[in-house]
Amino acid sequence: MAVYFIIMSVIAFCLFGADKFRAQHDQWRIPNKVLLGVSAVGGAFGALIAMYLFRHKTRQKMYTASLPVMLLAHAALLHLMG
Questions:
Q1: Would you tell me the crossing angle of helices 44-53 and 2-24 to the nearest 10 degrees?
Q2: Cα-Cα-Cα-Cα dihedral of 67, 72, 74, 79, to 10°?
């Protein structure tokens, strides 16, 4: 189960990084529902790290409020599973 969360976190991290790059270069952006969706299904840790490392989405309450909650839920799930 931990491997799943690691893989999803790497994917989320890469998506946030790619979206930041695209934002800086005036290119097509990754939709919010994709960023939040990948975070919700296991990538919250990687998304949270990327958000602060790349300084991306840090002003949007939707991200600053939901990602820590998702991370806590994932940690609780990992603890319960194992």
A1: 30
A2: 170
Answer for the pair 16, 47: CB distance below 8 angstroms, yes or no. Answer: yes
Spatial separation of the C-alpha atoms in residues 56 and 6, rounded to whole Å: 21
Type of residue found at 75: A
Would you tell me the crossing angle of helices 61-81 and 2-24 to the nearest 10 degrees? 160
* 8 — pLDDT class (breaks 50, 70, 90): very high
pLDDT tens digits for 21-75? 999 999 999 999 999 999 999 999 999 999 999 999 999 999 999 999 999 999 9
